[in-house]
Amino acid sequence: MSLSSEKSDIELDEKIKQQHRIDSLNILLYMLLLITTVLTIWMFKHRRMRYLHETGLALIFGLVVGALIRYTGDPSAITHVEVQAVPHSDYNESLPPDYLWFRMKRKMPPGEGSGPVENRTYAYLLTGEVEDATGNEFAQQATFDPEIFFNIVLPPIIFNAGYSLKRKFFFRNLGSILCFAFIGTTISAFAIGGVQYTFGLLFSSPPSLLDCLYFGALISATDPVTILAIFNDLQVDVNLYALVFGESVLNDAVAIVLVTAIENYAKLYATGSDGFEAIAFLKAIGLFFYVFFSSFLLGSVMGCATALLTKFTHIRDFPLLESSLFLLMSYSSFLMAEAADLTGIVAVLFCGICQAHYTYNNLSDEARVRTKDFFEMINFLAENFIFSYIGVSLFTFPKHQWDFAFISCAFVSLFIGRLLNVYPLSWLLNLKRRPVIPLNFQHMMFLSGLRGAIAFALAIRNTYSVGRQTILTATSIIVAVTVIYGGLTTQLLLWLGIPVGGEEDDETTGLNQLQRCRPRGQQNETGARDNPEKALLVRLWSDFDTSFMKPLLTHSRPTLLETMPLCCHPLARLLTSTQQLTQDTSNKYEEDGELCLEADEASFQHGDNGSVHSSGHQMAAVSDDGDLGTGSTAGYQRTPAPPVSTRVHLQGHGRGDSL
Amino acid sequence: MSLSSEKSDIELDEKIKQQHRIDSLNILLYMLLLITTVLTIWMFKHRRMRYLHETGLALIFGLVVGALIRYTGDPSAITHVEVQAVPHSDYNESLPPDYLWFRMKRKMPPGEGSGPVENRTYAYLLTGEVEDATGNEFAQQATFDPEIFFNIVLPPIIFNAGYSLKRKFFFRNLGSILCFAFIGTTISAFAIGGVQYTFGLLFSSPPSLLDCLYFGALISATDPVTILAIFNDLQVDVNLYALVFGESVLNDAVAIVLVTAIENYAKLYATGSDGFEAIAFLKAIGLFFYVFFSSFLLGSVMGCATALLTKFTHIRDFPLLESSLFLLMSYSSFLMAEAADLTGIVAVLFCGICQAHYTYNNLSDEARVRTKDFFEMINFLAENFIFSYIGVSLFTFPKHQWDFAFISCAFVSLFIGRLLNVYPLSWLLNLKRRPVIPLNFQHMMFLSGLRGAIAFALAIRNTYSVGRQTILTATSIIVAVTVIYGGLTTQLLLWLGIPVGGEEDDETTGLNQLQRCRPRGQQNETGARDNPEKALLVRLWSDFDTSFMKPLLTHSRPTLLETMPLCCHPLARLLTSTQQLTQDTSNKYEEDGELCLEADEASFQHGDNGSVHSSGHQMAAVSDDGDLGTGSTAGYQRTPAPPVSTRVHLQGHGRGDSL
């Protein structure tokens, strides 16, 4: 190897080190942003300031830093060269290739021209389309590969939502939640898409209908983070909490499947000949349900598989292995769904719910604390990272397309979409639902439709075409505006007369509120009994769950030996663990009766079981009996999370009425 | 937008989705590998099989899967096009540009030729050099960006090594450890580099001296994981444990700084004119110490800053915020060092030691458990991920260069390097050191020089040139062979007569062993007192630490008010927290006296403090008083980690002698 070639190796090393330095600086930037956010959050909490939520803080700090980078950075460090295929190239497809191989002559430094001229070939990877090949050379500073958001940052957020779901109230309001999530999100997506498209026609370069629908679907994923944190702080009514949380958890899943369905429709439409629109449409609907339910099934199966693994092995003797297995299985559910062309978000959400409902019972005490703490922390960091990133990237992401008409219109269409979602569906639901959703709850639901991490992650996932870049920019702006506005919620809650803040008298406020707000005088009864068919469905599932699923998947009593018919006893014996047979029946697991609406109130007050938690975890144990947590961002406060008392009250109230 | 353009957008979408699917499959592959590894580890532990360590398992599974992918995969899915600069390009540097802009004509599908021909420009990012531009088209399957290893996977492993360091025994053997780490690693690096270069000269295309030294430095980073796990299982002598662990922790740091120094030397040498070698050499040595101590300082300062933040704010009221801050500050120390052209590994290692020594005392009980569990789990997953990856990538990484002469020679030079490191230095140290390092300990140290994650991460960091690709291949092979061979250690320990396995009688075995094995009859005394100057240095630091550092950085007693001269009292009052003044002196923190060799034995048996841990964490508490853990991979077993009893014994023994 000649000296000069060694010299260029050293130069190349330098270049790589330079790149590494920039990478480190980028990550460091976000770490410092997060540190600032954490410290500011602490100060806000310490001084009881509530007018801005932590995600809003992360976003604002991000905006400031992004602007600094934008206007002080030196974009000239990044070089590019325009290239074309070599003349005799036989590449003949309409799509850009994955890699380019760039052969370049090494120019010798002056005075050393004696060595041979070396040809070296370098590989280059496709990153995206360049819109304006003359300008727009701003460096790709402080940005990450979008796949990182989708594959790394998003799954723990969604999983934690499922793992810390308040299952009792979720299932009690299941009908309404499903209605809002499925029908509401679809209404919202098409309303937004339609308005955007109609409005776009007024201009010279309208966005395509496909892009508009795509935008409508992804922006329909509401984000509960800000609202729920405030709900937690202010102890709002549990049913409102369940509705808002349940809707936003499920509507992420629905929105993402809608996005896929719209893409599929476009594909079917484009490849089929004209006149087959209807068939393409039906196929797309079929695909929607196929994708949703397959993902649901995959996630649930992975959750149940983890439950079986933890039940029938003694892996609980090694909590580290146990927790790792738990984490790996859960993450695999996401990846499997993505690899199988389903949606990982749906899979990991239902996997989280199954893990909480079954596997959690089989875990050792240490692994319970470990997994809960782990996901809580990862969730907290991931969320704040996304919001910091949204802030920074608004200034630094090189592929923004500032279409102000589109953005302004988006706010209007968002408003319309939310309007057509909440009020008509609430009216429909109130025809049958008891307790009805009072009007001020509807207002609150309307206003709590903030947009956040999911919408952004969906938008940044694909920015190869200009249309998608416009969508990303609009989404970023919408998220920024709604999240910062989210801080006003406290005022709105007060203004709408939704019960907040009471500690002890809350037990009556909630009840009074429900009765006072009821707009239709003729309904005097509350509780699940009013709605026999829905209660029946839930009770059927609950019975099946208690008799077969829990005995099969956990160490809980009764065992399958008691619930299965006599002929199946050999099988039942095989599926019953020794621990299950020998354990003291008084030592029942915490989660028992979670789905059973008539469960004894004591299941909420597992002080005896809660005490297996550390004294250091006492406050977690207080907020945890029955549920694993009190929402995605609660639980890092040392005082017991508020909804507990309200919850206990409401249940008592419901039963009192129905007896 | 024309229909055909919309159609190609859809095609592009499909392509992106395809890429995403492949990404998901790649990650899923590793998750499944890890799940298999976790379950197999559990089975091995359950059946008490010890002939293969978990990292060896991960590696073997990786190899199998890698081979499957290699010989069943379809590489044709990835397309590439050879390109050249457009004729009038003015790019004139000797290095490849960061981006290529590729302008291509969209070919219309047949039958739709009426639309305008569109030009689109795509950006491509540099990924590396292609050696053989005609063949070697094997797809970049199942591989990751090397930066991920260096920036994401490695830091938690190193941090955890520092955070769970047995500080007492580390500091007791500090002199020897530093000697092995600094002098030994340097000897090893130059010996290996020299042998490789000399051997290479026999062949037609010898590797460059720079590459040889680079290889020598990076392969000198020994990996303690396998050995220490076995040591933990078998309860070996604590001094041997401290020597092996301490050396391998520090020598990673030294090796990585050596790598930087060699790069710097090459750069200085290449840019200076001839005849200035000596100056370049001196400069490189200066840079070595500058980089090492600046990184050390940066890491320690970040650790102390975290201690101050946790001491003087009430952030401990919110354990989630507290743990997040802890994590973010620690990771920032790594990134800051990397961004400042220092070495993050050194920074994060010493940051970990400071966090354990100071910050840990200020944390809330919940945050202590949280951070310990968190890092333990991340460390476990990161390690096994790296070993899986090494296995898979041996078959799938597209840039391997199989230079069999180089690889065979590497094993010989490794042997020579380790030989010249352990035995001469032990002999030198034994001239002054008490207790001496007996010959069978030296054999064990010689044999425990396995290579692992650090060496691999260093090697894969830069594979742009062919020389570096050869180094990567050799490193992978060496790591694979030594890690799998590591399982034989149990047999070696028995064969060398190193005490293993005793539960109760271990207390005497350790002592007998030390006396029996002493090869030089004239030394009859043990304990630190024999070595007054070293003991003095350690005692000086210990006094300073107890009088100033701990009172300043933690809530421990005595306070600065008691230890600082009277004139400084206003300042001392400012730096003393209320909690520090008001707390009950009996409620001392666990870590007190950690560095103080004469500390009361009771400091090892903080059963009273240990009880603030959860009952679920009881076994952690048992193994934890005094230290945060029992090594990088211990602590996921429910039985108390073994070294505790030995440790307590040895301390008693040492003091008994010196009284």
Provide keyphrases for this structure.
homodimer, 659 residues, mainly alpha, 25 helices, 3 strands, 4% strand, disordered C terminus
Sum up the overall morphology of chain A in one term. Answer: globular
Oligomer: homodimer
- Spatial strand sequence of the major β-sheet of chain A: 2-3
Counting DSSP H or I runs of 4 or more residues, the number of helices of chain A is 25
- The ordered string of helix (H) and strand (E) elements of chain A is HHEEEHHHHHHHHHHHHHHHHHHHHHHH
Describe this structure in words.
Chain A is mostly helical. In chain A, 65% of the residues lie in helices and 4% in strands. Chain A contains 25 helices and three strands. The first copy, chain A, has a two-stranded antiparallel ribbon. In chain A, helix 1 packs antiparallel against helix 2, helix 6 packs antiparallel against helix 8 and helix 10 runs antiparallel to helix 11. Chain A is globular and about 80 Å long. The N and C termini of chain A lie far apart (91 Å). The relative contact order of chain A is 0.12. The C terminus of chain A is likely disordered. At the A-B interface, helix 1, strand 1, strand 2, strand 3 and helix 3 of A face helix 1, strand 1, strand 2, strand 3 and helix 3 of B. Strand 2 of chain A pairs parallel with strand 1 of chain B, so a sheet runs across the interface.
